[in-house]
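Morning, I've got a small favour to ask if you have a moment. I've dropped the whole record in just underneath, so have a look.
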Amino acid sequence: MLQGVAKPKWYQGVSWVDCGHGWMWRADEIELVTAPSVPDGGDLTEEPASLGPRWWADFASSMDALAGHDAGHPATRHTQYLTQKRITAKIHAAFGSSVDTKVDCWRAIHGDFV
């Protein structure tokens, strides 16, 4: 379990594999959060007035705690491992092969940031 990361209380979860499509699904029941969030789409171009200093302090503290966590397994995105080879291919496809993509330090991250 992640320690020091602000998150809603988790109650229960279920996962299943859709063999017909090769997909893995997961559903979690968590605490209802009524606090304001970032805008739909997650793109911030300026600090939202609805997110006060306490929200930003909790976010910064959570990111620090998350960075210090050893996930114990490779990160995945859509059930595919995030490897140096995959990251390099994605960056080179978008920005060209002259970009240095070497990752020197791997850390646990939230999947939405990938």
Remarks:
- The beta strands are 10-18, 23-30, 76-77, 80-81.
- Residues 68 and 109 are 10 Å apart (CA to CA).
- The chain has two helices and four strands.
- Residues 53-67 form the longest helix (15 residues).
